[in-house]
Amino acid sequence: MRSGLVAGGLFILSILATPAFADTTLLNVSYDPTRELYRDFNAAFVAKWKQDTGETLKINQSHGGSGKQSRSVIDGLEADVVTLALAYDIDALAEHGGLVPTDWQQRLPNNSAPYTSTIVFLVRKGNPKGIKDWDDLARPGIGVITPNPKTSGGARWNYLAAWGYAAKKYGGDAGAKDFVAKVYKNVLVLDTGARGATTTFVERGQGDVLIAWENEALLALGEAGGKAFEIVAPSVSILAEPPVAVVDKIVDKRGTRKVAEAYLKYLYSPEGQEIAAKDGYRPRDATVAAKYAQKFPQLSMFTVDEAFGGWQKAQAAHFADGATFDQIYVPGR
Amino acid sequence: MRRRRHALPGFGLTLGLSLAYLALIVLIPLAALALKSATIGPLAFWHAVTAPRALAAYRVTFGCAAVAGLINLVLGPLLAWVLVRYRFPGRKLIDALVDLPFALPTAVAGITLTALYASNGWLGRWIEAAGYKVAYTPTGITVALTFVSLPFLVRSVQPVLEQLEPDIEEAAATLGAGRLTTLRKVILPMLWPAILTGFALAFARAVGEYGSVIFIAGNLPMVSEIAPLLIVAKLDAYDYAGATAIAVVLLLASFVALFLINVLQLWTVRRRSAETR
Fold first, then answer.
1. What pTM was computed for the model?
2. In chain B, at which end, N or C, are there fewer CB atoms within 10 A of the end residue's CB?
3. Domains, chain A, ranges and CATH?
């Protein structure tokens, strides 16, 4: 018994001691569906960093709901860089504890979003319910799967995409509210995160349509070999811009600013853009985008800034306590 | 009063240590919780804890926890009875299995149960064919809570049953009592306190349960959204005080339930000793 305890203790010690072999470590705190992207990107950057500087770098990844991840960093998780689902969650780092300056989004090109995505539909093979556009999601009898916008950053893009479409088509916010309420009445399971919703749709066979990030839909399609699902692109959708930022307070404390900044810059390089495109994100780089044009269908997209006046406003109007999303579920209103 | 000798010396020392320990581990965190929730002011607090979504979530959480507790209240002691009173091959194995819900990370339990009960799962497809739905309904929540709270009932009743000599049953039989009478008048009264304790623990555990429920619940507001999820949603909106307000309500409700059950237990014990006197 005692020797077992000693062995267990040694085992735990050995695990704790392992990361010490790398010269520098970097922690990238990211959101749910970027697992594959950063697995590939980190491998490429570690190789490049070794070549350029001779330093052995170890990059640790943390994934979870975007809001949860941001909160962990506020509460003390030492993230050198954050790569989250929406600007609002990095704004929170500026607001709570001043971990980044308030103008963080101007520090890198394209609003600090090196890759983009959009919101599309994943339907079952053959599209048995004939789902073509947002209106079909509001039809009675359609089972919709999407995560909860309160707990999932990705789900907020879904919600705003539906809202933006309806506001254009049905004349302003009143029409949009009605439409979005109809869509959410069709929701069968409201998972807490984007990955959970994909699992519910793909593995558990729930619902007729999954509202998903394009990269998540492409991934599900790739894993199932294109046999079980199809992607349907709506006529209009939102341009999702997942932003990245160096966390100033932490890189200055840990002395990792140089490598952290190089890491994020590499996302904008042709190699970084190529990896993003391979893993289902729309590249910003025109050359890489042209190469992958087949993979990403052309559709009309609006940004959060255009349609909602930025994330702070969108958050207050739609996802705050008692805002439009809550109103959908309160009976008798 | 004559001084009695105890194995541990000093009433003052042991009580002091116990209180300090309790304060450090339980009271200080709970006080911090209450203080945090008080930062929003009484009106906002009242607003947060009585919102329709919150009320619906309490109903789901307490309702499902109570049903799960009641299911285990019947089947847990039965399982304990079988384990104590009979010797059969595989008994030790079953005995060990009972504790598994304690050991299993709750998220694993949730994912496994969801895979089983979803409409394409092993069990779910038969249940669905019969016209019922378990996964993504409050029934699913109850299943998950029943799973995680089972060990409490078995483990609280088992030691009492082991102390209960089979001779007592034989005595009852020789005095002309039928099986039902023996069970009702002899065995159950002795088990009651343990059963109540087990139920209280199971209920309190189920009220706070998050990990296993979240996968199977469906999480639809007003229908299958549990109160702990509401807390997480508020935290994600950086609303720390609102989240702790809901947590305080859960805590108070659990405390009241545990307290009532303790009173009930005391009462049954008193009544029994009065009867036997």
1. 0.80
2. N
3. 2-113+241-268 (3.40.190.10), 116-239+297-329 (3.40.190.10)
